[in-house]
Inverse folding.
């Protein structure tokens, strides 16, 4: 069978599988809906409204939208100032710019004063093929060390729609790894309800426990379906909140039976959810078979996302192959 030829668009728009149901701009649409009933909601961006779906909000509420230009540090400082006046700013940029360029401003202006700023960042992890300059493969590792900061990595469009009002109600700063454009809608089939700080069991199984976050939950669910056909039962525990971690649920699932435990994330193997859970298990003196599905501690290549996801082991096919090898 001849593989479909990939175009340049595959470098930024290939999260959804062919034929998969998607929702367009779930973040932007959810923010507009929220702003209809909450006058405190404002938007801030550093020249990336269109590429973070904030342009939808800007078109609907131009008087509540602030464009600071290519100045990510200024965007964070502006959001902090707006929060001090009682507003609830949602500030958007790419993940690489929020973390690498504006880290100190998030740390000192927003987090230290526990301001009510919601930082929504596009292109987290390996969701763009434009090479290391745009691939935020280490952003969770950087942000986990900041006190007061809640970190959330959503699975799909359905979850983003729930996350926006939830984090607006949450008092304190939030770092949200954003999915933009046409985003797959997976969780509608699982009667799912997002809660800050809570992990949710989406599938149960006796052979493998996959603790996943972000788009890797999407892949974990696809993996569970495929492996079930081969007689391998995979449980999927979705952990959208990286910090604070739902230690109670994680420990309950890990100790339930002698399953292979796999943590799957769209992030470097260094400093993300995998290391966080490994540390938790060590502190609790729990011994189990433990594996990570994550990006390598490297500067990654540029290219089409489907190819990169295969090469770096986070595609459904690659995950299935890894699990079968580990079970052998």
């Amino acid at each position: 069978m001849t593989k479909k030829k990939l175009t340049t668009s595959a470098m930024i728009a290939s999260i959804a599988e062919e034929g998969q149901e998607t929702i367009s701009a779930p973040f932007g649409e959810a923010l507009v809906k929220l702003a209809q009933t909450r006058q405190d909601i404002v938007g801030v961006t550093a020249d990336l409204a269109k590429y973070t779906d904030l342009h939808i909000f800007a078109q609907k509420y131009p008087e509540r939208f602030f464009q600071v230009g290519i100045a990510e540090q200024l965007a964070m400082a502006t959001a902090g100032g707006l929060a001090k006046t009682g507003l609830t700013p949602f500030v958007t940029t790419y993940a690489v710019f929020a973390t690498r360029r504006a880290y100190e401003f998030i740390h000192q202006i927003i987090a230290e004063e526990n301001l009510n700023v919601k930082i929504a960042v596009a292109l987290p992890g390996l969701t763009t093929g434009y090479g290391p300059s745009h691939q935020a493969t280490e952003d969770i590792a950087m942000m986990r060390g900041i006190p007061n900061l809640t970190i959330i990595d959503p699975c799909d469009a359905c979850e983003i729609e729930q996350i926006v009002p939830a984090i607006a109600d949450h008092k304190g700063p939030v770092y949200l790894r954003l999915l933009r454009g046409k985003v797959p809608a997976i969780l509608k089939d699982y009667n799912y309800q997002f809660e800050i700080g809570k992990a949710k069991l989406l599938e149960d199984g006796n052979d493998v426990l996959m603790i996943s976050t972000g788009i890797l939950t999407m892949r974990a669910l696809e993996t569970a379906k495929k492996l079930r056909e081969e007689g391998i039962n995979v449980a999927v525990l979705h952990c959208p909140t990286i910090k604070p971690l739902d230690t109670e649920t994680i420990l309950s699932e890990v100790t339930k039976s002698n399953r292979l435990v796999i943590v799957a994330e769209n992030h470097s193997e260094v400093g993300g959810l995998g290391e966080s859970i490994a540390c938790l298990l060590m502190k609790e003196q729990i011994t189990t078979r433990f594996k990570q599905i994550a990006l390598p501690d490297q500067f990654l290549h540029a290219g089409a996302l489907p190819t990169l996801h295969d090469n770096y082991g986070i595609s459904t096919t690659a995950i299935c192959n890894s699990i079968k090898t580990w079970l052998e």
In short: The longest strand covers residues 260-268. The chain is about 35% helix and 20% strand. The mean pLDDT is 95. The longest helix spans residues 215-228.
